[in-house]
Amino acid sequence: MTPRRTYLTTPIYYASGDPHIGHAYTTVLADVLARFHRQDGAEVLFLTGTDEHGPKIQEEAERRGLAPIELCDLMAERFQAAWERLDISHDRFIRTTEAEHIAVVTAFVQRLADLGHIYQGEYSGWYCIHEERYWTEKDLGPDNTCPDCGRPVRYVEESNYFFRMSAFQDDLLRHIEENPDWIVPEMRRNEIIGFLQQPLGDLSISRPRARVSWGIPLPFDDQHVAYVWVDALINYLTASGAIRPDAPVGQQGFEDTTGSWWPADLHIMGKDIITTHAVYWPTLLMAVGLPVQRQILAHGWWVVGDTKMSKSLGNVIDPMALRETFGTDAVRWYLMREMPTGGDASFTPERFLTRYDELANVLGNLASRVMSMVGKYRGGVVPAAPGIGLDASIQTAFADARTAMGAYKVHDAMAAAMDLARAANGYVEERQPWSQAKSSEDQEGLDETLASLCRSLVALCALFQPVAPKKMEELVSRLGLGEVPTLDQAVALPVAGLSATKGDPLFPRIDSPWSSTDTGAD
Ligand code: ME8
Description:
Blueprint: E1 5-14, H1 21-39, E2 43-51, H2 55-64, H3 68-85, E3 92-95, H4 99-114, E4 118-128, E5 133-135, E6 154-163, H5 169-178, E7 183-184, H6 186-196, E8 203-204, E9 206-208, E10 217-218, E11 221-226, H7 228-233, H8 235-240, E12 266-270, H9 274-288, E13 296-299, E14 302-304, E15 307-308, H10 319-326, H11 328-338, E16 345-347, H12 349-378, H13 391-406, H14 410-431, H15 433-438, H16 443-464, H17 469-478, H18 487-492, H19 516-519
Parallel strand pairs: 1-2, 1-12, 2-3, 7-13, 12-13, 14-16
Antiparallel strand pairs: 4-5, 4-6, 6-8, 9-11, 10-11, 14-15
Helix pairs in contact: 2-3, 10-11, 11-12, 11-14, 12-14, 12-16, 13-14, 13-16, 14-16, 16-17
Bound molecules: ligand ME8.
């Protein structure tokens, strides 16, 4: 049987600033889904990368006294280092300054032009560099500011090339209506449907080189560069391997994507960039004759306390600092457990510590008490007994976690896993293995208790693995197993005869790095 294939993407992040907790959230979410699919037997292409062209990068490079490519090299390295430290298992890190991507963008734009979807026109309006988008006057905030980010916008009057996006409005609306799960969650789908019920304008897809020099020149007019969003969205296609820009026109792959990873199965992003992914991107794909992406998942927004995170407020949360103190898996766990996918979440030190305590006190504590009892009562060897005492809880946890993961509700899947750990702790209290150990008639009962607990630990390893891969590898090795089992294997894995070692606490007690005033505690 050919394995199921899944192609997952994160946005490519602007190479103008350092990775923060928002970028980390999206990337960890994608990583958890990628790991879950791999664990479930699928072949996965997981893509992330950096968005490296456009005025935002050009201006930031100037500000730092660097050439744009120097800034991009620096930032691409920082993002890669961050993802390595957060144990992100991406298969490909794309940079939009790569030659391959530039060639695909060039071929894509040429094809749009060849098919008659591009015309030249005059643009006048307001531009926000930070968001890299135009606004109409009626949308502007007070004193000519961007309605999204609040920064001043600039009035721009120039000649641009336009994509006839309006011609695809009806097709797109029909696609969304016929595919109710194409955009999740539903709230975002409704937002896009609402947007498409207004007349859809055409999209300016170029910028004059005289104003924006840092971009990919249009193949039919080198005095213009591709609009950075068009350039950026095409990254998903470049990495899929569908397009062969060097092939003769007609054989470049636009007609047939067989053998490539296109169409992507899931584009994951924050709710801030849903319109570009759910309107610009599919209409561009329709125009060149390619299938559209299979699904879009737009997640919510991290704020700090009740304030938007921003450089100027100095409240940007650095996931690397958290990781230094609590470890990678604790940061991943917090991000996944705290934010219901689709909803917003607020970072506070108290919530971080509460989530960490849950890991330490429920899962960590269970692991250490079970290992210690197997050591004390059975010389470190898991006894041969059916070990079915927690089967009902295991079945429930697996069913709930699978359903939740299928709906991208990682927070619910992790809640189901934690419920199993709680049930196992409850089982210890109920069975009182320390009393069983004292009674010569209850030795079989003790074997059954310990075997049941070890089976639950194996199940927990499989359930927590996508979110806490390193700690689960460690737990599995302490259980005497070679590797973390898949969900299917974990249900029926024999545990009799495994040699269990206790080791240090999986999630050690850690002094809060925040002072009591920071946490708001008394
Ligand atoms: O938009 N909460 O890049 P970007 C949650 N280059 N997620 C957040 C967040 C927050 N506070 N802040 C950022 C771009 N994110 C373009 C994308 S894709 C073809 C081009 C995450 O560096 C979230 O995923 O501004 C958001 O969509 C993304 O970072 C924006 O990253």
